[in-house]
Amino acid sequence: MKRSVLILSLAAFVLSGNAQVLKSNLLNGYKQGDKLEKATYNKTDAPIKIDTWCEAFSSQTDKNAGSPITGQELSYEGYTEKGVSIKIGELPENVKGSRFSVYSISEKNDYCRGTLYLSFLANFSSVASSRLGDFIALSPVHTGGNLRARVYVGKVDDEHIRFGTNLLRVNAESFKSHALNKTHLLVLKLDYKKNEVSLFVDPALTAEEPQPDVVAKGDEDNNKLKGGIRSISFRNRDDLTRNVGNFRFSSSWAGVIAQ
Fold it and tell me: What is the pLDDT of residue 23?
C-alpha cells in the first residue's frame, strides 16, 4: 500500500512539473548547420513573431555577422530537454564584437508575476577574458534590448571559468570555478516578489530547490523588477566558443526538473 502511494505521489509531482513548463523545445525542427534566425526585427515596434528566433533590432548591428548556426546536441544527466544547440563564437573573421538574436515568447505582460525560471545548457571550449561577459538574458521587449537578467561567463584560467548574473544595474558574480570543455546546467531565476535574480550552476536536480550560487538583489527605488518577460536573448560573441542550448522556460522549480 505504501509503495502504491509513493508511486502515485511521484507521478503527481511529474505531472505538476510538466504543467509548470511554459516554453520548451525552442529549437524544435532545427538540425545541425541550420541558420538560427527566421526573420529580422528592423524597428523597435515591429510586430511580434511569436515563438520564433529572430535577429534582434539594433541600429549598430554589423550585418556581415550573419545569423548564428545550430550545432551539436548537449546533454546533462537528469535534465531532459533535448535537441540541437546554438554555436557561439562562429563570427566571420572580419567581424568583431557581438550580435543579438531573440526568441519572442509573449506579446503582453504575461510573465511578470511570481517566479520565473530559464534553464539551459552551455559548453565552452574557450573564454577569452577574465572580465565577465553576458551571453543569455531575458527582456521585456520582444524585439530585444533592455536586458534585465543576464548570465555572464568569465575566464579563471586556461581550464576553468566562472559565472555571474544581474538585475538591471545590480551585478553579482560567483568566484567558484567550473571546467571548460564540460556541459553545465544553468538556471536563471527571477523572483518578482523578492525583487531578485538568482543563478544556479550545475544544481542538484532534486524535488527541493537548492541554494543558488549567486543572487542579485534589487531595491525599490532604482532597481525593481517590473513589466513582463517577452523574449529570451542570445548574444553571439567573438570571445566565447562552442555551444549553448536546450532552453526551458518555467514557472517553478518543478518545471525545471520535469520529465
Answer: 96
Interatomic CA distance for residues 243 and 69, integer angstroms: 10
pLDDT at 92: 83
Phi, psi of 40 (to 5 degrees): -130, 135
Q: Hey, is 63 helix, strand or coil?
A: helix
Cell numbers 518555467 correspond to 250
Residues 6+ apart with CB under 8 A from 82: 73, 75, 246
Q: From CA 205, how far away is CA 106, in angstroms rounded?
A: 28
CA 32 to chain centroid: 20
pTM of the model: 0.91
What pLDDT is recorded for position 7?
42
First CA to last CA distance, the chain? 25
pLDDT tens profile 202-224: 999 999 999 999 999 998 778 89
Q: Which residues of the chain have pLDDT under 50?
A: 1-14
**From residue 28, how far is each of 31, 55, 59, 152, 214 by CA, in Å?**
9, 18, 30, 26, 31
Q: How far apart are CA 165 and CA 221, in angstroms?
A: 20
Whole-number Å distance between alpha carbons of 9 and 128: 47
Per-residue pLDDT, 64: 66
Q: What was the pLDDT predicted at 250?
A: 97
pLDDT for 220 equals 79
Strand partners, 41: none
Q: State the amino acid at position 84 in one-letter form.
A: V
* Burial category of 211 from C-beta neighbours within 10 Å (exposed 0-12, middle 13-18, buried 19 and up): exposed
How far apart, in whole angstroms, are the C-alpha atoms of residue 200 and residue 138? Answer: 16
153 and 161 Cβ atoms separated by less than 8 Å: yes
Please classify residue 5 by burial: count the beta carbons closer than 10 Å to its beta carbon, then call 0-12 exposed, 13-18 middle and 19+ buried: exposed
